[in-house]
């Protein structure tokens, strides 16, 4: 389910955080679905349990999961992000990326096509 690149310069917990976010965004992991326990995932991926715990804490901080003491971690149901700081930051990043693509000569139609593919669940690339 999850594959990590141990030779990458990106820390393992960040790779794990991004991969789990991807699974949640693409609805592979459903609302309120329980994630593997820290110990279970650490054994499966052969990483230190503290690394898994750090990734889970980061996912919880970002609002992707929630935890119930003694029960585990679960996928948080998606909420509308009307005026959240996370939405504002992502919008700034998107604006910067679009500006760079336009500067590099990518037609706006191609950018919109990627957005549409992504919206429909495609990879966008």
TrEMBL record:
InterPro entries (UniProt xref): Tscrpt_reg_HTH_GntR, WH-like_DNA-bd_sf, WH_DNA-bd_sf
List, for all copies, the residue spans of the domain called HTH gntR-type.
10-78
Entry keywords, A to Z = DNA-binding, Transcription, Transcription regulation
**What Gene Ontology molecular function terms does this protein carry?**
DNA binding; DNA-binding transcription factor activity
Q: Which Pfam families match?
A: GntR
Protein name stated in the entry? Transcriptional regulator, GntR family
Write down the species: Thermincola potens (strain JR)
């Amino acid at each position: 389910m999850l594959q990590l690149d141990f030779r990458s310069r990106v820390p393992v917990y960040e790779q794990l955080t991004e991969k789990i976010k991807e699974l949640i965004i693409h609805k592979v992991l459903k609302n309120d679905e329980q994630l593997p326990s820290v110990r279970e995932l650490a054994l499966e991926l052969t990483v230190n349990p503290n690394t898994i715990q750090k990734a889970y804490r980061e996912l919880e901080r970002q609002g992707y999961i929630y935890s119930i003491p003694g029960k585990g971690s679960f996928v948080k149901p998606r909420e509308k992000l009307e005026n959240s700081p996370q939405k504002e930051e992502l919008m700034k990043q998107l604006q910067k990326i679009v500006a760079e693509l336009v500067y590099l000569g990518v037609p706006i139609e191609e950018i919109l096509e990627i957005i549409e593919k992504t919206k429909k669940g495609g990879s966008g690339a």
